[in-house]
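Recap for those who missed Tuesday's class. We walked through two folding examples back to back. For each one, the amino acid string is listed first and its predicted structure tokens come directly after. Nothing is annotated here on purpose, so try labeling regions yourself before you check the end of the notes.
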Amino acid sequence: MPNPRNRHSRMRKRSRRGQDKLALPTLSTCKTTGETHRRHRAYKHEGSLYYKGMMIVKAKEVAAADDDAE
């Protein structure tokens, strides 16, 4: 395996490694639900699945079905 011909300076090495840190994910607040979520990701609010402020999958209403059975 080839080795570098010349040594890289400490500044050059550290400048390159300074880019390796992870950034925190960008968060947004939904205008519809007020829920804080990661951008460009679907998120759950009260059992329902939302994306871009629109409900994609509605939550199952288990409690209402149990009250009707009694």
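Example two. Treat it independently of the first, because the proteins are unrelated.
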Amino acid sequence: MILNFTLLYFVKIAQLNTFLHLYLNKGGKKEVQIRIQQEKVKTLLMEEKMRFRTLLLIMALLSSTSLYAQLPGDSFPDENSGLIADFSDTYTWTVFDCADAATFEIVDNPDGDTYQVGKVITTDCTWEGVILEDQQEPFDFSVHTLIKVQVYSPEVGRTVAVKIQPFGTPNPFFTVEAQTTVANAWETLIFDFADAQDDPNIGTFDQIALFPDYGEVNVGESWYFTNVQHGKPPISIDENNGVLYDFDEYTNFFYFWGEDASDFAVIDNPYPSGINTSEKVGWFITSSDCSWEGFGTCNKYEYFDFDRRWVFKVLVYAPDIDRQVTIKLEKWEDNHDNPTKVNAYTTVAEEWEELTFDVFEGTVADPDPQFYDRFVIQPDYQAADGDDEWLIDNVRLVDPDEDTSVESPIQVNDYKLAASNYPNPFNPTTTISYTLPVASDVQLTVYDILGNEVMSLVNENKNAGVHHVTFDGMKVSSGIYFYRLEAGHNVQTHKMMLLK
């Protein structure tokens, strides 16, 4: 197996080096585009080298000890869509109940749509359900506090529970309940795990179970489940003063509808002048075989209230004049169905300008303000001009009568807590770095895989800025550890590996 990894590594490195050589000898590219691609390929080379070294270390360790039988598997939550699991062939679910009765099967959707769902028939057990036999990365509720499940229940007001636990063990666990509001129809139940942030075992919860009819006895009823997802609470536009994205603050756009995800990135602003002096911008390069490529937001917003704000404004650096740019408004759960599209056209080339998109000039005459909570941006819409470079920044939703000058854009008022450690894996020390946007009472604690506290590294007030602290694993055994950073009401938990 190590030989296979070695061969794969050298093939990958050869491909990347060949790509870099060919690209640098290809004429006609803009200087900034070449510089960006150079940096991206160099980064890929470094990532491949680090990935190869880490794989060798892990494979060597696994061949000599059973210590890491609980390493996370391949079924990780999708950070873009929020999908944890569904009931397709990709995931494995196992039924459990008091009497081990066969109460679960994969069936066609009861409302007639052509996809598979999970069906549970209730027994006289008060805690029956299904458990996902695919191990996740430990759930990080400092990032996504919600778990959402689509449920088709037999009656209104029935309890459904979601339980998280360490993989393969029933304890410890954390359970959240929700109530059904419709009968014999699909609804999305939301389970808020914000309180789980205070559980000392949170870094070990990597398995999920669903309990229909929780705490009750109703024999022979049919329940259906699909689309288990995680997510954040909706973002309030009012809290952000109308700013939806400024890449100095946010970077979690995701790329879709194109040939290569590397064609979108957050980069240093190559042209900081005029109306845009931001440090970071979104960079996008078009492909020649796609006329509807673009990128959307990973964040769900509160429903856009178009009675209060109805004009989107976006800073754009376009390759040419009279290019069509489209903002598409969507409902988060609809997966790109029933959109409203609003167009604008560039008036300058290779220069920053602010485009205006009036929602009421879109393809839907009267957009429903209680519908749209997500947006997509599509540069060069319905064209297929390959290798054209676009830059975007400062996406806002405003009342044009009250809008401030673009020369003084409103910055997002958002608390950005960040933490990471290097090296990882490590032996025997690693440096944990964390950034505080404001002065805060900080607790930084290391836990083992069972949730036992190993060491308290910080427990004091710290000033705003970047801080570093060293964790020395000389006196503990090899294994997976978690460090939990608490600053004010914000919490982050990260995994690290000690390899001796």
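Answers for example two:
The chain has four domains: 2-64, 83-231, 243-398, 418-498.
The mean pLDDT is 76.
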